[in-house]
Amino acid sequence: MREPTYFVLAALLAGPLHGYAIMKRAGELSGGRVRLATGTLYTALDRLTDEGQVRLVSEQTVAGRVRRTYGLTESGSAALRAEAQRMAEAARLVIDGASTAKDGRLARKLGTA
Amino acid sequence: MSAGRVPEGGDGDLSRLERRARLLLRAYPPGYRRRRGEEILGTLLEATPPGRGWPPARDLTSVLRGGIAARRDINRSPGAAASLRQATILAIALYLAGMLSRELGYLGFPGWSGNLAEWQVLLSVVPLAATVVAAWFGRLWQIAVTAAAAAAAIVYRLDSGLGVPGGHRSPADVVSPPTAALFLLAALVLLAGTSPRPPRSWLWLPGLPVGVAGLLVVVNWLRLAAAAQALGWLDGWFDGWAAPSPYTDLFVIMVAASVCWLVTDFRPLLGLALGFAMMHVANVSGLPFDSNGLTGFGLPLAVACLLGLLLDRPPRVSSPTAGAR
Prior knowledge:
The complex is a heterodimer of chains A (113) and B (325). Chain A is an alpha+beta fold. Chain A has helices at 3-11, 19-29, 38-50, 74-112; strands at residues 17-18, 54-62, 65-72.
């Protein structure tokens, strides 16, 4: 899963949002690192909707324009959690590996002292 | 979330921004714009910082990329077989348009004198032109009728030994080889009966050689000195790939236009490649795989095969309201 897709889904985790709110929420969640552009957002929404990971929740007219609100489907929620789990395991591999190596070095130092 | 942002500059700024954002949205295909345009527009306006006359560069480029992707998906949606048939219709239309432009070129060289033979030639190209137009706009019976009329005109020209203005070529050269033209007219009718209608946006492609030839004829009629030379370039167009520099300019323009189109829809380029191959096969003698045939026939065919393989890639159909309600 690509990072923008991940953050689009993550933005919808707390509840349905409309397009601009998804962009803002994705930016907040990523600490400003992921800045979704308008075209990227709607390309991602099209794909996620086709794949059944996102669904249209409501449609209203605001200031003469259609505003659609999107929400996560069960499939989308599961895909998001699976991706988060995969990344956590990948991160743990590195972090635990680093601490194991550090512990080993410390133990060797203590042993020789 | 606010209902809609009004820039600090007031309504004037908003309308200017909105006008430009709407212009930007034209990157998307019309059907997509109808379904989703207002929604994207609202997001674009909200995402634009106050006081700006244009959406931010990253939004601008992302909308352009999104529009290209949406167009590409729609163009792939008919499937490989239908797309190949449409490309072949285009190739035949280009071949017929090439014949048409040659005829127009002969009429304009060395100038229109208005004799009976010239009028006969002019009238004989009308069904040919009608066939090309009918391939896009007409119903099947209209394509069949115009193709039959064009075939009859070709047979009549050959049978009557009708002279060509300028006296440089025989009628057989003009429609060389006539059997190929008759075969292609029949193929056009068959394909038109089994294929979805080719997009109207392709119409300018077969119109291009005719339009260029028509323009050169007009210039020649005005007795400008460069016209005769220009018609020489036109001859080079259909005789092979090696051509003088002005022809090369025209070729570069066509390639550039085709490359732009290729990004969203490579069926026209496939049709162009097949069309060039047909023209080359019809205009060279001997086997196609000689040194001349390598570029004139082999290269377009290789491009056609490559694009045919690409057509097999499945489309990603976008449906913004899928799963709604």
